[in-house]
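Why should sequence recovery work at all? Because a backbone constrains its sequence more than one might expect. Tight turns favour small or flexible residues, buried strands favour hydrophobic ones, and helices have their own preferences. The token representation captures these environments compactly. In the example below, the structure is given first.
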């Protein structure tokens, strides 16, 4: 289980809204500050995408629903992505079918690789030097 404060993109006019998110028992629930549920995702059916050029943002996609979450630090994002991936993998194992096992294993490997790549990019970004134009 993981829970904490996140910011959810609400649109151009209202921008980012501070919310509380809780992930447990295969579900991710996002509530506003008053406890009103804004979103509920079945993690096994959700694609979790760490945005490479924004070290604080995570994109969640489930069917036609797309939600942008923002956390307070790159370390916090790593924690959320790893926890959600772990919940996803555990939920996948519970629903295991004979032919689905290989697909689940490949999906898990892709998630792990994506998380490791994201960690590497976050680590390397501060070390990159910006060259002036024309150099």
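From this structural description, the recovered sequence reads:
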């Amino acid at each position: 289980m993981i829970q904490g404060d996140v910011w959810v993109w609400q649109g151009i006019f209202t921008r980012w809204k501070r919310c509380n998110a809780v992930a447990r028992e295969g579900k991710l629930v996002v509530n506003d500050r008053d406890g009103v549920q804004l979103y509920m995702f079945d993690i096994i059916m959700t694609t979790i995408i760490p945005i490479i050029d924004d070290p604080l943002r995570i994109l969640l996609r489930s069917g036609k629903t797309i939600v942008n979450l923002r956390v307070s630090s790159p370390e916090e994002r790593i924690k959320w992505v790893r926890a959600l991936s772990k919940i996803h993998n555990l939920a996948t194992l519970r629903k295991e079918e004979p032919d689905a096992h290989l697909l689940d294993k490949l999906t898990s490997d892709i998630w792990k690789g994506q998380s490791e790549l994201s960690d590497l990019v976050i680590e390397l970004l501060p070390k990159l030097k910006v060259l002036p134009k024309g150099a």
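A few observations help interpret the result. The longest strand covers residues 16-24.
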